[in-house]
Structure formats: C-alpha cells, structure tokens
Design goal:
By secondary structure, the chain is mainly beta. The chain folds into 3 domains: about 130 residues, Immunoglobulin-like; about 100 residues, Immunoglobulin-like (Sandwich), CATH 2.60.40; about 150 residues, L,D-transpeptidase catalytic domain-like. It contains 3 helices and 29 strands. A hairpin with a 5-residue loop joins β7 and β8. The longest helix has 10 residues. It starts with 11 loop residues before the first strand and ends in a 15-residue tail after the last strand. About 40% of the residues are buried. The N terminus is likely disordered.
C-alpha cells in the first residue's frame, strides 16, 4: 500500500522505551569519537554508523524521526531509551494490561537504514544505541544522546474521552470515537498515530466530526465475537504548530454478538435479529410526521446511551415552552439512537402502538418490550430504519454509517484505508518533510 508504514516487508527491530539508562560497553563510541586515520594509516575496520538526530542536539522536535544508517555493513540492533524530564510522566510508558510500549522502527531491505516508526516523547533525554556488522562478522557500536523539546502548558494535546471504553462489549456497528482537549490541525499525523487492530482483519478509516473529534469505522460492520485494540501513540505527535501530544493510550474492547434491528415505519413493527436469527418482533409507534421535528429519521442508527428513566424536554431541541409543539415527558427504559431527540422507549400512555404512528419522533414501545430492548442491546448495536422522508444526517449522533464507504474514505485526512492487521498505519507519523 502506497505510503504505508510497513513492518512486514522490511525487518522490524523493536526498541522498548525505558526510564533507566543501560550501561555502555567499553567498545561503544559515538561517530564523533571514532578515531580519524592519520595520513598513510588505514581507517579502523568495521561498519561505520551514523545516528540522527546527532549527539548533543538540544530541543529536538519530538516528531523528528530517529534514523540509523550504516556504511560497509548492516544494522543488527537499535535501542531507544527515553528518560522523561519529570518522573510523574513515567506511567505513560505502560499500555493496557501492564504492557510496555515498544518504540519500533523499520529496517530497509538491504539492512543499511533504520527509521523509527513513532514519535519521540516531548521533554525527554533520549539515548540511541545502534550496532552493525560487516560481511566478515566485525561489529561496531555507536551512541547518540540528545534532548527533545518540551510540551509546554497550554500547548499539550491530551485525550479528553473515548468511546467505547476499555473493557466494554459493544455491537457490530460501534465506531471508535476519540475526543481531544485541543483542536487538531495536522490531522494526517494524528490519524497515523492511532493504530486499530482487530482479530478479523478489515479495512477502515478515520473521519473528523470537528477539529477535536476523530471517528474510526470499518468498511462494513465488525465481525461479531472478536477483540479490537486501538493504540493511540499520541506522545510527540505535532497536532498543531508547537502543540504536541504528551501521552500514549491503549483501548481494548470486545465486539459481542451481532444484533440488528430493522424497522419500516409504515409497518408499525420492529424486527430484532441476533446472530442472524429472529429474536423478537416488537409492535411500535413512531413519529406522526406532521412536521419535520416529529418525523422519525430513516437510515442506519446505532444504539448509544441507555437510561432506566429520563426526562424528555422539547426545550433541549429548541422548542420553546410556549409552543404548541412543546412537550416534557418522564419516560422509562430509554435507548438513544440520535442526537436530535430520538429514543426507543416505553410509552404506556400510547394506546396506538402497533397500529399508528403518533409519537413526537421517538419509537414508542409497550413497557415489557421496552424493558427487553433496554436489557438486550449493547452500545453500538444497529437499528436500520426505512419508510420516512427525513434522512438521518451522518453526524447526527452516531449516524456514521450514513456515509458510503467511498464517502467515508474520501473524508479521511490520509485518504488511504487503514488495514487492522497490526502492520502499521497508512503513512508517517512524523512531521512533513522529515
């Protein structure tokens, strides 16, 4: 794939980041310390190693790639140690389940060039050690120590929230939603810093609902009964000019059974299938559709938040209390399906359920059916609705499946599909031109 950060075609060398420096062996030299050959003398034998950033560099931009190149030999090992300026930031080095983050790189096919896959931590002392070997088995080692630019207060990109959360079990339509605390301008670099891996490999892509919110969805619904991991390697990413990410995060969730509910509004029924088998047919009453606001939207909805009891106030939709369309209701067993006020909920006052559409746009159910639906659905289950002249907007709630795959991919900052095989993201995480 063009531009993909490949770690399968080329040999991958992993350098685990650590907060404790290793002891340098006696044969270790930096390129600057390597003795020059005097006139008439031969240069010392062995591979010649060059590391960039160079030894002694200060305030290196964190999104600068680490590069190792070798003449007259091939790279055999690279390690990158990053010691944070403040001990308080050390927890960043652990991922989910107590795992350590690997600082990996990609080795060229001829073994002479190694380039880091990820960005460096802001405000860190970095030590790069590289070894190489020539055809005769002679080894060389080089070391470069430098520091990275700090992420100053007010210019630190941090994760505000995400959906789902680690440990959640979700439906097959569930997107990955990442909310940042600051606007992101360099969306390509940030997208490429977030790697999605699934047990059933698919193509997916990120879209942005705002400068602060990125959303990942696969081309089609997730395969059920699998684990998905999202590695957000945000430390060091240049989100905007001089705004750097400061922490890495790992999100792991389960995709549960496949639940798809379908509803043709004129039929006054909802049909629920679980793993392809009919589970329940539910009488419903949808929006009366006398106006746009009380017309149930057609399209692919996802189940969002759930509420045992909820006050529905039309004022939250911009309908004033003195309007004839105003309502304020206490409802039970409510499941949100959009941000424009649509819920599936119990409506014991509605005696036309299964016969006529009389609601304010929500899907009204009898109490026992509403309780069953509430207890059964997971966040991210699918509700496919047809039969009305009001389409669900793609950014209304979690209406992300309203965009075709072609549309979704075209709105990705990278413009390339992200394959969830754990082999990398579509392009570089480093700054442009680096």
């Amino acid at each position: 794939m063009k531009g993909r950060v490949s770690r399968s075609v080329s040999r991958r060398l992993a350098a685990v980041t650590a907060a404790v420096a290793l002891t340098v062996t006696a044969c270790t030299t930096t390129p600057e310390e390597e003795p020059e050959a005097a006139p008439g003398e031969e240069r010392p034998s062995g591979p010649r190693i060059t590391i960039t950033p160079e030894a002694g560099a200060a305030s290196v931009a964190p999104d600068t790639p680490v590069r190792v190149s070798v003449e007259e030999g091939a790279v055999t090992d690279v390690s990158v140690e990053q010691v944070p300026a403040e001990a308080a930031s050390a927890p960043e080095e652990t991922g989910g389940a107590g795992e350590e983050w690997e600082f990996t790189g990609t080795l060229s096919e001829d073994g002479t060039r190694w380039v880091s896959d990820w960005n460096l931590r802001p405000g860190a002392s970095v030590t790069v050690r590289a070894t190489a070997e020539d055809d005769g088995g002679e080894e060389s080692e080089a070391v470069a120590e430098f520091t990275t630019e700090a992420a100053v207060a007010g210019r630190r990109l941090e994760l505000a929230s995400n959906f789902p959360n680690s440990g959640d079990t979700v439906g097959v339509g569930m997107p990955v939603i990442v909310n940042f605390d600051m606007p992101v301008r360099n969306k390509v670099q940030v997208e490429n810093s977030m790697e999605v891996t699934s047990e059933h490999v698919v193509e997916g892509a990120w879209n942005w609902t705002s400068d602060k919110t990125a959303v990942f969805r696969p081309q089609e619904y997730w395969e059920p009964h699998q684990r998905v991991t999202v590695d957000m390697r945000l430390a060091g990413v240049d989100a905007s000019e001089g705004v750097y990410g400061v922490e890495n995060h790992r999100l792991t969730f389960e995709v549960g059974r496949e639940l798809v509910a379908t509803m043709h509004v004129p039929d006054h029924q909802m049909r629920v299938a679980v793993d392809g088998e009919a589970a329940r047919t539910i009488p419903v009453s949808n929006g009366e559709a006398s106006e746009r606001f009380n017309t149930t939207t057609s399209g692919t909805h996802l189940t969002m938040t759930k509420h045992e009891s909820l006050v529905m106030d039309a004022a939250t939709l911009g309908i004033p209390e003195d309007s004839p369309d105003y309502y304020k209701l206490d409802v039970d067993w409510a499941v949100r399906t959009s941000n424009s006020g649509e819920f599936v909920h119990a409506a014991p006052w509605n005696d036309r359920i299964g016969e006529a559409n009389t609601s304010n746009g929500c899907t009204n159910l009898r109490v026992e059916d509403a309780r069953w639906f509430y207890d059964t659905v997971l966040m991210g289950d699918v509700l496919e609705t047809t039969g009305t002249d009001r389409e669900l907007e793609w950014n209304n709630g979690w209406g992300f499946w309203q965009r075709s795959w072609e549309e979704w991919l075209s709105h990705s900052a990278t413009g390339e599909p992200d394959v969830t095989d754990g082999e990398g993201t579509p392009a570089s995480v480093h700054g442009e031109g680096l």
